[in-house]
Design a protein that fits this description.
CATH topology of the largest domain: Dihydrodipicolinate Reductase, domain 2
Oligomer: single chain
Radius of gyration: 20 Å
Helix content: 25-40%
Shape: globular
Structural class: alpha/beta
Distance between the termini: 37 Å
CATH superfamily of the largest domain: Dihydrodipicolinate Reductase, domain 2
Number of domains: 2
Length: 334
């Protein structure tokens, strides 16, 4: 069996801490380097992982893959540095804060013939995979309505996510990237969006509450509620309503019910962050080794950024905004 491949983690705060934990559940790769500008954050994570610490990603030369877990505005520069060196990249969502940058990243991946994928942990949640299979099988008939809620109170006053220059925006680009990618994964392309900002509660420079409405080419209407300042106490975070029944994907369990029956049928046990992120990293490593196909292709990253970009355009517009590329949002970049 081939020796475990060496991986560097770029960005050790927040989600980076979970990535370091994930490597306890990865057999075919080892975390050898941790990079973070803040030594007080990076050194302890590196020590716990048995890895080397550095504060400059440009000094990393001896790895086969990297995970980029830095703020979104930094993704293109860091990612393309490693792609040019032929190092495979798993880049945290969103791939970039604008479509042009995301496309440039994918072009570089193709030019250098190097693997690039976007992290989107919810695609690796078994309950969401199961819900997708139920939809594909027509279990609840024709899909009519889709609802998703990611709304809980989080103090953003000291987090980089609320600094527009490096985050690209507020809750829309943060939680909304997950929401819109899940919707695309379950329903297919999104062709137009309408986003409305709620009342700002926190003293931050970005939006903290947003409602997004969207439609798909197949006529599904969707609603997404996002907030850092309002807690919506719900057992499920996705509800899908069809002509013959309903599917609910929940935090602790997931179930469906047919219109003709009274009982809910459980098909999942809920969301486990570490489990989902471990599956994501294992898929990435498998793709690097050539033993697995990527679940999220680079073009998915572009399409995800395109939907978010359209939603932001809608915040400053009185009407619906078409998603770049229309129903061909998953287009191939020349």
């Amino acid at each position: 069996m081939k020796n475990p491949i060496s991986v560097a983690l770029i960005g050790a705060g927040g989600i980076g801490t979970t990535y370091a934990e994930v490597f306890k559940h990865v057999d075919s790769a080892i975390l050898t380097t941790v990079c973070d500008l803040d030594r007080e954050i990076g050194v302890p994570i590196a020590k716990q992982a048995g890895a080397v610490y550095t504060d400059d990603y440009r000094l990393i030369t001896d790895v086969e893959a990297v995970i980029v877990a830095t703020p979104p505005a930094t993704h293109p520069e860091i990612t393309m540095h490693f792609l040019r060196a032929g190092v495979a990249v798993l880049c945290e969502k969103p791939l970039a804060i604008d479509v042009a940058s995301a496309e440039a990243m994918v072009r570089e991946a193709r030019r250098s013939q190097t693997l690039l994928t976007m992290a989107s942990k919810f695609r690796y949640v078994p309950d969401i995979t199961a819900a997708r299979e139920l939809l594909k099988a027509g279990a609840i008939g024709e899909i009519i309505l889709y609802e998703n809620t990611f709304a809980s109170h989080v103090d953003m006053s000291r987090r980089w996510n609320s600094l527009a220059a490096i985050s690209g925006g507020g809750v829309l680009i943060d939680n909304g990237t997950h929401s819109l990618d899940i919707a695309r994964y379950l329903l297919g392309p999104i062709d137009q969006v309408l986003a409305i900002e709620g009342k700002r509660v926190q003293s931050v420079e970005v939006e903290d509450t947003v409602s997004i409405f969207f439609t798909t080419p197949k006529g599904v209407n969707g609603t997404i509620d996002l907030s850092w300042s309002v807690s919506k106490e719900r057992d499920s975070f996705i509800e899908i309503y069809g002509s013959d029944g309903t599917i609910k994907v929940g935090w602790k369990e997931s179930a469906y019910r047919l219109t003709s029956l009274d009982e809910w049928v459980q098909f999942g046990t809920g969301y486990d962050k570490l489990e989902a992120m471990s599956a994501q990293v294992n898929n990435f490593i498998g793709a690097v080794l050539g033993t697995e196909e990527l679940l999220i292709e680079a073009e998915d990253g572009i399409a995800s950024v395109a939907v978010v970009e359209a939603a932001y355009a809608s915040l400053n517009s009185p009407g619906w905004i078409p998603v770049a590329g229309g129903t061909d949002a998953d287009r191939v970049v020349a």
